[in-house]
Amino acid sequence: MKRLLITGASGFLGWHLCQLAKQEWEIYGTYLSHPIEIPGVKILKVNLTNFQELKCVFSDIEPAAVIHTAAHSQPNFCQTHPEESHAINVIASCNIAGLCADNSIPYAFTSTDLVFDGLNAPYQETDAVCPVNLYGEQKAIAEADMLERYPMTAVCRMPLMFGAETPTAKSFIQPFIQTLKDGKELNLFIDEFRTPVSGKTAAKGLLLALEEVNGIIHLGGKERLSRYDFGLLLAEVFELSASRIKACRQQDVKMAAPRPADVSLDSSKAFALGYEPLSVKEELQELINSQ
Fold it and tell me: Cα dist. 82→8, 74, 130, 211, 260 in Å?
């Protein structure tokens, strides 16, 4: 089996990716601060921002391909920790691109729908980026720098992701479910729109992009939903009372990082390659069935 290096194996997306990819690849997964064990996956502690350490990993493992999911992906954290987040989100990403270029191996990078300002959705791959927060800015810089350094990179813009809790990471739905079960109020935006997919579907998209794509690809879902609409679907599928779900607006909540209003992705390019997200309702139903 060929060796696949997956960074950020302890993260939500990285974990789901390891589960799926280990059927086809010999997986080496990295973590930094959240130790994890994944059956069938070789796990390494690596500081990706240390270039010497990174080079050693490449020479020791000799991967046939790399998927880079490790990141500081909380916009509020990036806004308040610009240097720390830049080190992993930009510098490490570009260094990995350089090492993949040196070895002429496939490289997939996880970017974000937050590279857009939210004013002209749905967004295609060719639309100009215009981030409104530092996280989106860092990803946009990384995209451009990596493609310049290694044009064979598959830059995968990921939407809002949800799914089963992993040993070291939750998705945004776990706190939603807990709040509703506790009978507390859940305030959700009616003016923030995304094209969400499950972590499992996102992982399938990444593996497809690794094989098929050079350049930018959007891996969004098929439906444009507000957080509020998503919450109502979640309550319906999980048979929780929706009476506590309250509509609010972005301006009602103080956050360090500004948020774009509508970063829905047009993912028809990926759909044409065989990327097939289920409807959000079906994805949520699958989650219940697998519990």
Answer: 20, 12, 18, 33, 19
